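Hi all, long-time lurker, first post. I run a small reading group and we've been trying to get comfortable going from sequence to structure in the token notation. Rather than ask abstract questions, I figured I'd post a concrete chain and ask someone more experienced to write out its structure so we can walk through it together at our next meeting. Sequence below, copied exactly:
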Amino acid sequence: MTSVLGQCPNRDSLWKRLTYLVDYANIPPAKELTELLPVLDDMNNCPYRNDSTHAFLLRRIGANYFKKGDCLEAIRYYRESIKVTSENKNKSVRQKDLILSYYFLGVFYGSLNNVSEKMKALDSCIAYARRLNTPSDIACVAALYQKVEYYFDIGDYQRCIEYAIMCEKFALEYASHETEKRNVEVGRQNAESSLLWRVKALLVLKEYDQAEKLLTNKLEEYKKWVSTIISGRSIPKWQNYNCTRKIISRLIFSLIPPLSGI
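-- Answer (accepted) --
Happy to help. Here is the structure in token form:
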């Protein structure tokens, strides 16, 4: 990326540089901020100001402040990025970026133990994913999962179950659309863990028959899901059986502590 102080940075070069910093670079946050903050100042002279590149730059700056432990500055820059995106819908601004932005805003508030603002941010993340018809976006899945844990922790087991059902569904959708093994695993783990919280909530509610029926039904459902995923990919068939065994084993052993107290 080339930029002369006081002049508008080249948009394509800036986007490539930001992408590189996210995906490949391992530059200390302070050094990266030294590079990016002047670029943000120069953005005032740009005709493409208030577009996706501008919002991306603000998020990257916020991410570096978070790495430095300055959550308040991280929040400030992420909120500015959200403002750029949400107020320029008719320009070249990707509205989908709001899903990830609100998720990380929730992460930042969580680091400050500000639970109410964290939940508001996660709710916005989920709301935008629904509005944009992308509920299986991994940021939305992660937000749903945090809501599952939150409602279990405060004792609202019915809402925990409701969010667990949504999280499992969309996590499996995410995994089924991915081709990279790492992403498939992330989706599958979120689905499994959501199912676990759902069963644990049923046990706390003393809905033992329902919990048992759920696990029995899920065994067959997960077998079919794993089979569907494998059928379209070059994965050895023996992994079908082993994968399903691991899912059920993880569920059973995770339930031993609450079951032993019944």
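A couple of things your group might point at:
The first helix runs from residue 11 to 23.
The two ends are 63 Å apart (CA to CA).
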